[in-house]
Amino acid sequence: MKRLKVILGKRSYPISIGSNIIEKDDIFLPLKPGNQAMLVTNKTLANLLKDKVVYHLRKSGIKIDQVILSDGEQYKTLNEMEVIISALLEKKHTRSTTLIALGGGVIGDLTGFAASIYQRGIRFIQIPTTLLAQVDASIGGKTGVNHVLGKNMIGSFWQPSSVIIDIDCLKTLPCNELISGMAEVIKYAILFDANFFSWLEENIKDVLLLNKKLLTYCIKKCCELKSQLISVDERESNFRALLNLGHTYGHAIEAHSGYGSWLHGEAISVGIVMAGRTAEILGYFKKEDLQRIIALMKKTGLPVKGPKNMSPASYIPYMMRDKKVISGEIRLVLPLSIGKAEVYNNIDKNIVLTAIKNS
Description:
By secondary structure, the protein is an alpha/beta fold. Helices cover 46% and strands 19% of the residues.
């Protein structure tokens, strides 16, 4: 088992990565025998993993209740979060209880948001079951729900007490979900590590075949990069904004298409290509580097073009509602080379439209 730590003073927490680690003693720290907890998962995972996790929680002496939500991005709403709050109240959970998120990014975001507001804040533990959640969404304390007019527009920063990454959970994933998660992995390489990008070019096929050694290295690498960033910029006032590479474009695709029509990673893959094209038009990014990114996305099985029924102009209203917009100006993360990126303000909308059109 590999262990990392997100350093945030009194709110620091461990990330545990390994195979079948749910079965290890004391893995559910800071929970102790006799503590009360509520497991939050979805209908799909209820049939696949829930009983195993509940068994080991009870074996550890934890008093565990459970709530099962609908599965899918379209259910990442205030209505579903209220289901969690109601279950906590009905079962008479107090401020000393701990929520446990068993699922992908949707369950993690919903559970974390509920934890942040229930009785003004309770602990929660992340057990991410998708690759996307394991390398990105479960770490860093961003929680929230979607609004019909924009993704993740309602939420809070609320750090988990621990993150438990069991790579065996990935065996339950449909192939397209596994591929979707690789978009965030590739994002980290583009942003911070050219050598990691080269490693992905060589090993992507075996990672997708769930080679345990390569998969563990891949997940640990992403967790290390994100942990370092969060430790210096928890609330995205500076460097953490880099993690939004491709997201301003990608969130527009998700909102326009209806949440759930495009998987998050699929939309982000296209968004990264559009960001790269924007940087190329501005003269910041070499065409050869953009071609390497497109080739890696295709090799992974990710899309590189947006929805056919979405015109370039239809991206702009969603992009203007993005949380990163300041004083009516779009802010974009653009790659400068593979391994380096920066945040840019005041980019001409015509350039953005041209980049979307030519992607």
